[in-house]
């Protein structure tokens, strides 16, 4: 029978030694496991092959990490934010929150993080960022707190395409932020500021389109607000050609345009802030030209806002010139216009009581026909209602009397009836509020009188107390001095008595006691005579029943002291007798 095959056990030590020629005495070439140099070469080749099998994204990520020297211990939050948010930015549900998060992370990031994010995500896509509804905020944040190199690169890219981007709402906001930063720190971006000034000081057809554009004129307003000195003067010189200028040969006017009038309003707004004589003069000329043409401007759809701006925010000189020389004469016809009625209302609101009185006497109530014309007009009835609201009580009574007269003659149409209802309601309310105000004023005056009387009484009491306190202190001092003097006399008497009793014999004891009693009576009378403020019949005399409690207690203590003094003497004498 054949023997079964028995497998060889390779894990056995003896067999393992036989398999290696070096251990068995063979002259064969050493194996790979016995050659250490070959082992190292095998490991390097193995890992190198594995690296070659990595995809392109892994290599690209390694290159980015090598550029910024990122390691496992440095994981910036700004990088994580941009990696997570920018990939899904357009499809994100909370774009506003996402944008604010990136702005906050950028503001708190380190310079190395800002460099990495700017170079990776923003540098090559600045134009698209400026046109995006939410991404443009990030460009504004970089311009505000970013490194100067990043800020200047953004400004260069945007201002190089300013004619294309200036009419976009979001890109225009980025330009305005850049303009603010450049004006506040001109040393950081001198070349960019120079490029913008060369653009804004152009006078051509393309700039005229920018003046009247809905979005682009905002940067013109921002320039007027931020610039000063020669930069502002040069800009105002260009704009002055197209604002109510007789020398303007081109058919282009800013004051009557929907958006051009906003530039004129901005000039009125910045006038009080100017200190340069040339700049102030050219601003004043523009405002005066608007006042001189107020009769025309008040009836235009957009130009009437210029006159309203002068009434609201203009200087007192311009305001008085406008109202006294132009508006008060043109009030009736202006009030009956659709757009002029708005100006008439503003004039009544911002004018003083003297101007309203003059308007009432010279224009409104000068005749019944003029008053009737105003209150029955579809536009003029609104300024008339406003006038009644601001008039004094005497003129209000005249107003109501004229209304009642017209109402009695049936001369009021539907608009006049509205004015009458308004006047009656407002008149009653005004009278009621006037009574309430008067009653409150009377109460306040009475309370003030009471407070004044109370204050006077308190002052008098304080003065009396101040006079009484020194007198009371003097009495206390006198009483203390009297007690001290009394104690000293008692001690002296005891010493004398002790010396005398030592010399007395038993036979003369009774005679000495009798003599001592007589002495006590004399001493008591003498002490009583030394208290004039309590017993003497003088100006300061106070009878016992009306003495204060403190004075009565003092009197009782003094009597007790006298009794103790007598008892001590008797006790001493008895001891001497024994």
TrEMBL record:
<feature type="repeat" description="Pumilio">
    <location>
        <begin position="285"/>
        <end position="324"/>
    </location>
</feature>
<dbReference type="InterPro" id="IPR001313">
    <property type="entry name" value="Pumilio_RNA-bd_rpt"/>
</dbReference>
<dbReference type="Pfam" id="PF00806">
    <property type="entry name" value="PUF"/>
</dbReference>
<feature type="region of interest" description="Disordered">
    <location>
        <begin position="440"/>
        <end position="468"/>
    </location>
</feature>
<feature type="repeat" description="Pumilio">
    <location>
        <begin position="121"/>
        <end position="156"/>
    </location>
</feature>
<feature type="compositionally biased region" description="Basic and acidic residues">
    <location>
        <begin position="1"/>
        <end position="19"/>
    </location>
</feature>
<feature type="repeat" description="Pumilio">
    <location>
        <begin position="326"/>
        <end position="361"/>
    </location>
</feature>
<dbReference type="GO" id="GO:0010608">
    <property type="term" value="P:post-transcriptional regulation of gene expression"/>
</dbReference>
<protein>
    <recommendedName>
        <fullName>PUM-HD domain-containing protein</fullName>
    </recommendedName>
</protein>
<dbReference type="InterPro" id="IPR033133">
    <property type="entry name" value="PUM-HD"/>
</dbReference>
<feature type="repeat" description="Pumilio">
    <location>
        <begin position="365"/>
        <end position="401"/>
    </location>
</feature>
<dbReference type="GO" id="GO:0003729">
    <property type="term" value="F:mRNA binding"/>
</dbReference>
<keyword id="KW-0677">Repeat</keyword>
<feature type="domain" description="PUM-HD">
    <location>
        <begin position="57"/>
        <end position="427"/>
    </location>
</feature>
<feature type="compositionally biased region" description="Low complexity">
    <location>
        <begin position="442"/>
        <end position="468"/>
    </location>
</feature>
<feature type="region of interest" description="Disordered">
    <location>
        <begin position="1"/>
        <end position="29"/>
    </location>
</feature>
<dbReference type="GO" id="GO:0005737">
    <property type="term" value="C:cytoplasm"/>
</dbReference>
């Amino acid at each position: 029978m054949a023997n079964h095959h028995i497998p060889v056990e390779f894990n056995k030590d003896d067999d393992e030694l036989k398999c290696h020629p070096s251990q068995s005495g063979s002259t064969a070439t050493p194996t790979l496991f016995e050659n250490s140099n070959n082992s190292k070469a095998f490991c390097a080749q193995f890992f190198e092959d594995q690296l070659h099998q990595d995809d392109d994204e892994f290599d690209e990520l390694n290159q980015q990490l090598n550029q910024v020297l990122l390691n496992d211990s440095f994981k910036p939050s700004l990088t994580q934010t941009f990696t997570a948010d920018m990939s899904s930015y357009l499809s994100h549900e909370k774009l506003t929150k996402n944008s604010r998060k990136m702005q906050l992370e950028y503001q708190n990031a380190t310079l190395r993080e800002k460099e990495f994010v700017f170079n990776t995500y923003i540098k090559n896509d600045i134009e698209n960022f400026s046109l995006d509804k939410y991404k443009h905020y990030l460009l504004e944040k970089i311009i505000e707190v970013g490194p100067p190199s990043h800020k200047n690169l953004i400004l260069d890219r945007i201002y190089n395409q300013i004619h294309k981007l200036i009419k976009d709402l979001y890109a225009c906001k980025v330009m305005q932020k850049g303009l603010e930063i450049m004006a506040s720190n001109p040393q950081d971006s001198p070349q960019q500021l120079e490029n913008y000034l060369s653009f804004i000081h152009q006078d051509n057809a393309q700039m005229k389109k920018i003046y009247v554009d809905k979005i682009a004129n905002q940067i013109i307003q921002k320039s007027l607000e931020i610039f000063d000195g020669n930069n502002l003067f040069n800009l105002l010189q260009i704009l002055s050609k197209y604002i109510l200028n007789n020398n303007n040969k081109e058919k282009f006017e800013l004051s009557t345009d929907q958006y051009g009038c906003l530039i004129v309003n901005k000039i009125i707004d910045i006038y009080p802030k100017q200190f340069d004589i040339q700049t102030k003069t050219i601003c004043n000329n523009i405002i005066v030209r608007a006042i001189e043409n107020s009769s025309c401007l008040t009836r235009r759809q957009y130009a009437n806002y210029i006159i309203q701006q002068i009434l609201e925010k203009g200087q007192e000189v311009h305001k008085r010139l406008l109202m006294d020389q132009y508006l008060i004469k043109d009030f009736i016809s202006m009030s009956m216009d659709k757009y002029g009625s708005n100006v008439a209302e503003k004039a009544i609101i911002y004018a003083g009581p003297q101007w309203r009185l003059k308007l009432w006497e010279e224009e409104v109530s000068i005749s019944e026909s003029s008053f009737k014309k105003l209150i029955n007009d579809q536009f003029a009835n609104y300024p008339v209602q406003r006038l009644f609201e601001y008039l004094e009580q005497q003129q209000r009574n005249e107003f109501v009397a004229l209304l009642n007269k017209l109402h009695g003659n049936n001369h009021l149409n539907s608009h006049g009836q509205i004015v009458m209802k308004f006047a009656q309601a407002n008149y009653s309310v005004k009278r009621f509020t006037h009574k309430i105000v008067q009653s409150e004023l009377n109460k306040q005056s009475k309370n003030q009188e009471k407070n004044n009387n109370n204050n006077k009484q308190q002052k008098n009491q304080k003065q009396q107390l101040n006079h009484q306190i020194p007198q009371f202190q003097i009495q206390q001092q006198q009483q203390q001095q009297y007690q001290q003097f009394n104690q000293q006399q008692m001690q002296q008497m005891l010493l004398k008595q002790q010396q005398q009793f030592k010399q007395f014999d038993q036979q003369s004891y009774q005679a000495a006691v009798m003599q001592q009693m007589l002495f006590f009576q004399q001493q008591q009378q003498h002490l009583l005579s030394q208290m004039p403020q309590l017993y003497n019949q003088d100006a300061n005399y106070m009878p016992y029943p009306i003495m204060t409690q403190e004075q009565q207690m003092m009197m009782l203590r003094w009597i007790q002291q006298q009794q103790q003094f007598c008892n001590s003497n008797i006790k001493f004498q008895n001891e001497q007798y024994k």
